[in-house]
Amino acid sequence: MKKKKNREYQSSDLVKSFARIHGFEDKLVAFEIKDFLEDYLDESLFNEIQSVNIEHHIVIIRINSPLLKNDFKMRKSFYLKKFQDKFGIEKFNDLQIL
Length: 98
Fold this sequence. Notes:
This is DUF721 domain-containing protein. This protein is α+β, with helices and mostly antiparallel strands. It has a single domain, classed as Alpha-Beta Plaits. The chain has helices at residues 6-22, 25-40, 43-46, 66-74, 76-87; strands at 49-55, 58-63, 94-97. It has a three-stranded mixed β-sheet with strand order 1-2-3. Strand 1 and strand 2 form a beta hairpin. The longest helix is centred in the N-terminal third of the chain and has 17 residues, at 6-22. It is globular.
């Protein structure tokens, strides 16, 4: 695993505090979820994901491919559990695939 430099931590903390002040925390978590999916999925599958957002404690993933969309819907509880384990169970309570 790549070790971050000290200034990367400081920069990350600065961005998080800015997001907290201006109410962008959900968007930062959505970016982290998208990064997680990029690592978890094959590149061709990841490219089918159009966007990831969080609204009212619901993770909304827009997917272009009907096959991948169906796979996500079938494994919805699996992905929701993964996201809750990684980012905290209190952050979201549902997953919506569009």
